[in-house]
Structures are given as C-alpha cells and as structure tokens.
Amino acid sequence: MLINNLLTSDHVRFFSLARYALSEALRVSGVGETDYILIPEYICRDIIAPININNAQVVYYSVGEDLTPLEPPEMWPKAKAVLAVNYFGFPQNLSPFFQYAELTNAVIIEDNAHGLLSKDEKMQWLGMRADIGIFSFRKTFCLSDGAALVLNKNQASIPMKVQLSPTGKGFNPTARIKCKIKDIPFIGVYLWVLFVILVRLFRKLRTGHAIPTMIKSHQYEIPYIGNPHRTLLNQLKRYNYDEKNEINRRRRLYHKVSIMAQNRGLVSIFDYLPDGTVPYGFPFRATEEEAALFSKRVRWLGLDLLKWPDLPDCISDQEGYDNIWFVNFV
Predict the structure, then answer these.
(1) Domain 2-155: which CATH number of 1.20.1300.10, 3.40.50.2000, 3.40.50.300, 3.40.640.10
(2) Cα 295 vs. chain centroid, distance in angstroms?
(3) Confidence band for 180, pLDDT divided at 50, 70 and 90
(4) What is the pTM (predicted TM-score) of this model?
C-alpha cells in the first residue's frame, strides 16, 4: 500500500501544505539564488511562493490542450530543476522530462499533489517515478491539511531535515466538517448543500465574494505554518486501510460525472480514464455559463465544481489556460 510505504520510509517528510514540500525539494536539489526552476505555464500561482522564498528564478514551458509539454525538451529553457505535474491525478508522460534531465542535469520534481493513489501504465505509483515526489493528502482525503516530500532514485542519499513536529491546527479546518456532514445517512447531501450555501452567504457578507478570491500575496509567501496537523499521521494510518475503497469511489464518480457532462455537451480534457488512474476530479473546458449550470447538477451528488488554477500574473492572459473547470471528488 502506498500510504504505508510513505509512513514507514526514511526518505519522506510530512508538511501542512505541498508548497512547503516543494520548498524543501528545492533545497534538497541544491537550488541557489541564481538558479532557474522550470515549471509549466498552466500552474497555480501558489506554487511560485516556494520558488520565491528560495530566492530562485522562474522560467516556463508551455503545455497543449492535453496538458502535456507543447515543445520538445531541447527547446525548453535551461534550469536547475524542472517540475512535471500529474494534472487532476492523470499520469504525466515523464519521457520528455528524462530527456531534458539528460541534456541539462536538472533534477526532476514530480508534482503529484492531485494524484495520490494513482499509477501510470506500468503500474508505478505517481510521485515515485522521478528524483523527487510531492504529495497532498488533503486533496484526496477529508483532512484539514497534509502533504509530503519523497526522495526517490539518486536523491535518496541526500540528508533531509528533521521532521517538523505535528503541531498544526489545520490550514482548512472546515474540510473535515463538510465531509462528516455528507456522510450522514439519507440527509447528508442536503445538509451539505445547505452548509455550503450558508458558508458562501456568510463569506459574501464579510468579504463581498461568495467564492474565495485569489490572494496575490500567496505568490510570494506561504500562508500558515509548515508543521502538519497534530492528527495527520494517525489519520493516514486509518486511511491506509481504505485505499481500495477510495480508489473505487473516485473511479465510479468519474464515470458517472462523465456521462452527465457528455449529456450536456461537456467533454473531459482526457480521452479516457486509464486503469491505474485515481482522478482528483472530472476536468473539462467550459464557459462561465456552462459551468454554472453544470455546478447545479453535480451539487446534488455532494460534489463541488471549481475553476483551477489561479494562474501566475505573467500567464493569466494566455489562451487555453483560463477556461478549465473540475468537479472536485473530495
């Protein structure tokens, strides 16, 4: 089981947020003030903060409609480390990244924040295929926070910092509350819908926005502390025995939502669901109006629809990156 492997490995460190895991990954990679980090243009702006706090510089590579690199690796800017992202839990083809590493000696960091429990076509765990892997448990299970850094391959001999003490109070404490409400037999989904409506109403009265808006400072600093929640490791031990059920639940949801989407002319970004993939959600392209209508349909399944990501400042106007939505399976 993957979770058990992570819990028992000497080459894993746990954090509250995957952003802290990336920051440590850059440190382990020997990234310095004059070094460049190569990341995809299609990425959440929050990922920039770990690079900034390590005083490194960002360069980008483009991705196509299928979210794979648009250009061959010999055309990518030279960098000390390169980020490969398993978008929405689907395996990124790492062949171009291995080619790039051969050309530049760059460290490959596999961003698997979306892909806990997913495997590729060779049945290898995502996040364990490159030099360094990053996980975000809170994007798979009902946790208020939780992330991990894993040193793989030739990085495993590099000394790691001592594990931070689990003293966090939770970056998003309401996450577990919402999941507990949904689990109430018969009426859980209805109570969850009411809870979401009330939370968004309160947020709109307090901030003027029903949905959380992007916070520009998150591109330059990481909110909250790096220490994981005090119950994280115990919660992961419990989820360790529930891996198979979670895998089946997410794959069933993907097929169900896929049919609902196709009936409304909405098509997933990915052509099919590979055997080993455990989807973070159902991703698709749509207008604001189409997404709003579909949101009302999936809400009664106890699911939320979100737009992802908040792009970095210099990428926000790029075509094809700002119309992707996903039905969140957490």
Answers:
(1) 3.40.640.10
(2) 21
(3) confident
(4) 0.93
